[in-house]
Amino acid sequence: MTDAVLTTDFPGLTLVHRGKVRDMYAIDGHDEMLLMVATDRISAYDVVMDDPVPGKGKVLTELSLFWFDLLGDIVENHLISADPASYPEACRPYAELLAGRSMLVKKTRPLPVECIVRGYISGSFWSAYKKDTTVCGFALPAGMQESDRFPAPLFTPSTKAEIGDHDENISLDQLKDIVGTARAEEIADISVRLYQKAADYALTKGIIIADTKFELGEIDGRLILIDEVLTPDSSRFWPLDDYRPGQGQPSFDKQFLRDYLSSLDWDKTPPPPALPREIVDKTRLRYEEALARITGG
């Protein structure tokens, strides 16, 4: 089994952001780019676990690279290279660790919102629908069941929350107030087109993409697809063969982890509980299965 990477430290590079999973570094003399490293950290309920999932960062990176290539005809993305041999000289001492889990990317100005597209009703949207069939400005059909497919994909942006807080769903009109009408409509159009092409492809591989979160940034006024793309961390992947509307669905993500944590007397605040090896292994295998199905690897 590959050695797990819980955190990174690269003397000579400047850490500019440490997220739940990714570490971002600036490189002296290369202000137009960043080094993005996917660790094996995993979070649940907005809490980063102390126990990593070995190889998870490589799965996320390989999936993102696959989708960047497949979706490149819809919108430009931030990828410069995923080959450490082509990175700036300051990165070379860390090439072995960076291999398979890093990307050299264009530096952008990230949008202040998450670009969420939903093809099926699940999660927070299902919870809201049970209270009112109008959700985030969408008048949804009456009588929908949990996990039902929407008549058409819905663009449902959200605000970006600080770590420990929760994102807040907003309407398209609210997004227009934030970024302007024309830009909001462009964001919505790109997001839905990305989702539709990916969802159509995934179905041919036996996977339903129930919903996903895209990140977009700007360079010189152009919208750029950034961060990770269509991974089990940013999406709900359901096995098509097991799809049964009217209930929650099995998924290729943190299901085993969430189920285990829900069984504990834990208040979902730091510090997190220790994770049994069985839970870590089952989670890792689900991520690896998603990669294998989607990429054919």
Automatic annotation (TrEMBL):
Pfam families: SAICAR_synt. Gene3D superfamilies: ATP-grasp fold, B domain, Phosphorylase Kinase, domain 1. PROSITE patterns: SAICAR_SYNTHETASE_1. SUPFAM superfamilies: SAICAR synthase-like (SSF56104). Pathway: Purine metabolism; IMP biosynthesis via de novo pathway; 5-amino-1-(5-phospho-D-ribosyl)imidazole-4-carboxamide from 5-amino-1-(5-phospho-D-ribosyl)imidazole-4-carboxylate: step 1/2. GO terms for biological process: 'de novo' IMP biosynthetic process. It is an enzyme of class 6 (ligase). Keywords: ATP-binding, Ligase, Nucleotide-binding, Purine biosynthesis. Its EC number is 6.3.2.6. GO terms for cellular component: cytoplasm. Signal peptide: none annotated. Transmembrane segments: none annotated. It catalyses: 5-amino-1-(5-phospho-D-ribosyl)imidazole-4-carboxylate + L-aspartate + ATP = (2S)-2-[5-amino-1-(5-phospho-beta-D-ribosyl)imidazole-4-carboxamido]succinate + ADP + phosphate + 2 H(+). GO terms for molecular function: ATP binding; phosphoribosylaminoimidazolesuccinocarboxamide synthase activity. Residues 16-270 form the SAICAR synthetase/ADE2 N-terminal domain. Belongs to the SAICAR synthetase family. This is Phosphoribosylaminoimidazole-succinocarboxamide synthase. It comes from Desulfofustis glycolicus DSM 9705. The gene is purC.
